[in-house]
Design brief:
The protein is α/β, with parallel strands linked by helices and 429 residues long. The chain contains 13 helices and 16 strands. It has two domains: 151 residues, Aspartate Aminotransferase, domain 1; 250 residues, 3-Layer(aba) Sandwich (Aspartate Aminotransferase, domain 2), CATH 3.40.640.10. It is globular, with a radius of gyration of 23 Å. The protein binds pyridoxal-5'-phosphate. Pyridoxal-5'-phosphate binds next to helix 3 and helix 4.
Length: 429
């Protein structure tokens, strides 16, 4: 695209009132999901703006300090307190705190008894962990393309896939509330029941999100009304941050008990379950589990973070509306996201023709936008398993144009105006 051609209308640009003091030698941390990459040390004109970041208050710090001064750094009372509060927030019976969202997914695939060779369906537009959890159990990942309007796993494409194979070919589906858009799990549940499949909802992007079902009932992401299990992540870019951390939610007591067992080495002390009993110290390892526990320090932080979850969500919505307004005021070649009321705005993703050029322009201006996601099936690991470019054309087309703009509760209006102005400048330069 010609650079002069980027705008479809001429307009006056606002002047840049944003921080223009020189900040020397600032370590700039760009967050790529799950990694802190690139510590740059250079002269910066503006404070770097990441695409996402945590919001830590004095209340959080006090809670962590109190936890450090308590008798329990792990396996103490802060865990159940956080789990109970989280279950109440989501509106679900049981919550199991774990060390991260990936561990949550792994325990879920174990709890659903995924065996080597079992075929499980998921979306290519997600963080790779949504697919990798199938591989941890030796299962086969079967990607299915996304809906071009919502960018979520397309239920009709999944139906076609299922109908092409004899019943029993697939074991389950892992739909993802990508970007914070609550996927309609009622439709997936109907389909899953027709084919005897289980559902694990990857709700990492959507605590506080919801969809309205056919009975006009609000269904919170992760409430397990339609899915067997749901999982969340508390990575710093997510709505609730505990450094590393995750949660599994379910209404199923049997699955809950199994998850609790698997979270801690498969060891139980429950007298009812023990095969022998040598005394009060006695415990048994009954299954091959893991140490996927969350610490009390993290759970204490999670509890105070959770108290402000709605406040954070409100701010995310405000930021989304400000972007919408700014970009709709001009006829720009930007597609803004379409969303409904229950969107949780983990990400605000625009679609532009020359994504790389805009990405570089933002970066030159110290705005660290991000790309969510490189389609999982095009990753070398999945290519080695037989997937190739061209397999999921809707996902691949989406990937070519998507760009996630800064979106986090502590993003100030001034900072957001700078992001908007930098984008408007790009389209008119
Ligand atoms: C959709 C999705 N699923 C799973 C995960 C994994 O969570 P964690 O980073 O806590 O292991 C993430 C985190 O980036 C995610 O975005």
């Amino acid at each position: 695209m010609e650079s002069k051609d980027r705008s479809t209308s001429g307009f006056e640009l606002p002047t840049n009132n944003f921080i223009n003091t020189k900040i020397q030698l600032i370590p700039c941390i760009s967050i790529i999901d799950n990694q802190y990459s690139m510590i740059l040390e250079k002269t910066l004109d503006v404070k770097p703006i990441p695409y996402g970041r945590q919001n830590i208050t004095q209340e959080d710090i006090d809670a962590v300090v109190k936890s450090l001064q308590s008798d329990f750094l792990t396996q103490g009372p802060a865990i159940a307190k956080f789990e109970n509060a989280f279950a109440e927030y989501i509106g679900v019976k049981y919550a199991v705190a774990v060390s991260n969202g990936t561990a949550a997914l792994h325990l879920c695939t174990m709890a659903m008894n995924v065996q080597p060779g079992d075929k499980v369906i998921t979306t290519p537009i997600t963080f790779v962990a949504s697919a990798n959890c199938i591989r941890y159990c030796g299962g086969e990942v079967v990607f299915s393309d996304i809906d071009p309007n919502t960018f979520l796993l397309d239920v009709e494409i999944v139906r076609t896939l299922l109908e092409k194979h004899p019943k029993g070919t697939f074991k389950g589906i892992i739909p993802v509330d990508f970007a914070g858009a609550a996927i309609n799990l009622e439709t997936f549940k109907k389909l899953a029941d027709e084919h005897d499949l289980w559902l694990i909802e990857d709700a990492c992007h959507a605590p506080g999100g919801f969809f309205i079902d056919s009975k006009e009932k609000k269904q919170n992401c992760g409430n397990s009304a339609y899915a067997d299990l749901a999982i969340f992540s508390f990575h710093p870019v997510k709505h609730i941050a505990t450094g590393e951390g995750g949660m599994i939610t379910t209404n199923n007591k049997k699955l809950y008990d199994k998850l609790c067992l698997l979270r801690t080495h498969g060891i139980t002390r429950d007298i009812e379950l023990l095969q022998e009993n040598h005394g009060i110290w006695y415990h048994e390892m009954q299954e091959l589990g893991y140490n996927y526990r969350l610490s009390d320090i993290q759970a204490a932080l999670g509890s105070t973070q959770l108290k402000r979850a709605d406040e954070g969500l409100k701010r995310r919505k405000e930021i989304a509306h400000r972007y919408d307004e700014a970009f709709s005021s001009y006829k720009l070649n930007i597609k803004t996201p379409k969303y409904n009321e229950g969107h949780a705005f983990h990400l605000y993703i625009i679609q532009v023709e020359d994504r790389k050029d805009l990405y570089n322009h933002l970066r030159e201006n110290n705005i660290f936008a991000q790309v969510h996601y490189i389609p999982a099936h095009t990753m070398p690991y999945y290519k080695n398993l037989g997937y190739k470019k061209g397999d999921y054309p809707i996902a691949e087309k989406y990937y070519e144009h998507c760009l996630s703009l800064p979106m986090y509760p502590t993003l100030s209006n001034e900072e957001q105006d700078y992001v908007i102005e930098t984008i408007l400048n790009y389209f008119t330069k």
